[in-house]
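Thread: Newbie trying to understand structure tokens

Hi all, I'm a second-year student working on a class project, and my supervisor (Dr. K.) asked me to get a predicted structure for one chain before our next meeting. I've only ever worked with sequences, so writing a 3D structure as a token string is new to me. If someone could post the tokens and maybe explain what I'm looking at, I'd be very grateful. Here's the chain:
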Amino acid sequence: MLGDYRIRGSRASDIAASIENGVATGALPPDRLLPPMRELAAELGVNPNTVAAAYRTLRERGVIRTDGRRGSRVLARPATTPRDALRTAVPADVRDLTRGNPAVGLLPSLEGPLRTAALRYAASPTLYGEAPVVEDLERLARERFARDGVRAADIAVTSGAADGIERVLAAHLRPGDAVAVEDPGWGSVLDLVPALGLTPVPVAVDDDGPRPEAVARALAAGARALVVTARAQNPTGAAVGAERAAELRRLLAGHPGVVVVDDDHGDGIVDLPLHPVGGTTRHWALIRSTAKAYGPDLRLAVLTGDAVTLDRVRGRQRLGPGWVSRLLQYAVVELWGSGAVDATAVARAYGLRRDGLIAALAARGVAAHGRSGMNVWIPVADETAVVTRLLTAGWGVTAGARFRVESGPGVRITVSDLDPREVETLADAVDRAVRPVAGGRFD
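---
Reply by user tm_fold:
Sure, no problem. This is what the structure looks like when written as tokens:
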């Protein structure tokens, strides 16, 4: 069952460490079936409860999954091997289009807002026991949600989108529960789900977001949660349209116990309307982060949802960090209040680069996707070959393995730093790299 690898230990912590070491070294590869608990206990001469405790620890760490009588297996993407480890090394003389960062030239200056925030803090320093959300930020967040047709009865603040997603999932799920995730999708979520001891269920994506038939299969398979990127999906640029959102909401209405998370990290950089999927089930959350529009170091997101979810998120937050820095909250109040970012202009700038590249590739017979945001996704036959050829041609792009579970291979190109005058040259290089075949579907 385990080949030559021997699990050792007499305590639960030692047994868990031995298995985790086997996973980290590759001696226990993904999907490897572990011994039944009683069998391993007999081999090690310990109580079966000791092995059960070790397996429980590994589930909580996202190293293994347990599926009833089918036994326990090593997760296909355990938390010990984050997808960031698959990042392409780009030489200094190569144009780096791998980072996934916003265009620095489109970000507002934080000097003024941070200075104002510091003055506000100096006049009234934050002390223990104060409200976790600044009143002005709460008001502005409600107004901004309302403009998008979202009634935000309550607001929480987290340290970015990933922090918000983690807190919502942890508020409702327990290790072993299944979570429907976009495939291809954001690598951080694909790592986060197993790290929480949850089981990712891949859901195919097209230009309008999660495909209904794939979501239906995930729900039928017992998914307890669904995470959806509302706009500017990473890596495909998908954006959920009105028709797709309505179809998904109809599906979810038949599964009222499913937790739905809408990730709107594209707020401020897209000009497409927001069409959230959540709201038809008992528990839902809409998370809106500031990183893409105002800078990745502004670690803040506002979150709204049902009362139980918001109460659990805030309650657990109180036991940990307590609150997100009010200095950062003051800065976002200044940015939002001053209209520092013109979302239409920013979206137009990204669209000029993104749409220009997609059109240039289409003219060469290469299918590409990027309905919104700062990334273009190109289905390919062989990721490694395409990435290598493009590096040789002077272009660094990201292999799609960072973003995939079951979907077909592809490469992601971040257009943030792409000069529109470079589009034709890049399209020529991509055309040569993907020949003789290039796909047209994500899966």
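A couple of things are worth pointing out once you decode it. Residues 128 and 322 are 9 Å apart (CA to CA). The chain has a mean pLDDT of 92. Feel free to ask follow-ups in this thread.
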